[in-house]
């Protein structure tokens, strides 16, 4: 499937944790209602990303240039063309004082988990 979010030494444990989250009754099965929890999580993630983008627009918007391009350059401290988790948290939490779930957003957007 190409999903690498669970890769690592504790891969089976991480997958089991997700299953336990989806099966709070502990029956060993996931009902359609329990499966719906994924939809709720997805909706929350989308809302969190929308709010973060709106935050970035308030900070970096207003110029003729796309505010997301400006934000990218600001977050990419070393100019490498990619943003590390250290750069992300340094800018969003420490410098901009964003109080939303920025670390969760980073992990969601980080496709290669590097």
> How far do the termini sit from each other?
19 Å
Instruction: Outline the biggest β-sheet.
Output: none
- Quaternary structure classification: single chain
Task: Name the helicity range.
Answer: 55-70%
Question: What's the rounded overall pLDDT mean?
Answer: 89
Radius of gyration using CA atoms only = 17 Å
Order of helices and strands: HHHHH
pLDDT < 50 runs, ≥5 residues: none
Number of helices, where a helix is a run of at least 4 consecutive DSSP H or I residues: 5
- Please state roughly what percent of the residues sit in beta strands, choosing from under 5%, 5-15%, 15-25%, 25-35%, 35-45% or over 45%: under 5%
Number of strands: 0
Form type: elongated
Provide the fold topology.
Blueprint: H1 11-22, H2 32-60, H3 67-75, H4 85-95, H5 102-109
Q: Any overview of this molecule?
A:
With 114 residues, the chain is mainly α. It has helices spanning 11-22, 32-60, 67-75, 85-95, 102-109. The model has no long low-confidence stretch (mean pLDDT 89). It contains 5 helices and no strands. 61% of the residues lie in helices and 0% in strands. The two termini are 19 Å apart.
């Amino acid at each position: 499937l190409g999903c690498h979010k669970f890769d690592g030494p504790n891969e089976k444990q991480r997958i089991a944790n997700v299953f336990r989250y989806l099966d709070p009754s502990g029956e060993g099965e996931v009902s359609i209602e329990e499966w719906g929890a994924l939809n709720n999580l997805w909706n929350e993630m989308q809302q969190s990303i929308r709010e973060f983008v709106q935050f970035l627009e308030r900070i970096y918007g207003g110029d003729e240039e796309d505010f997301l391009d400006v934000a990218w350059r600001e977050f990419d401290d070393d100019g490498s063309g990619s943003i590390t988790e250290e750069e992300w948290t340094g800018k969003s939490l420490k410098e901009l004082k964003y109080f939303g779930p920025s670390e969760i957003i980073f992990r969601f957007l980080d496709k290669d988990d590097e």
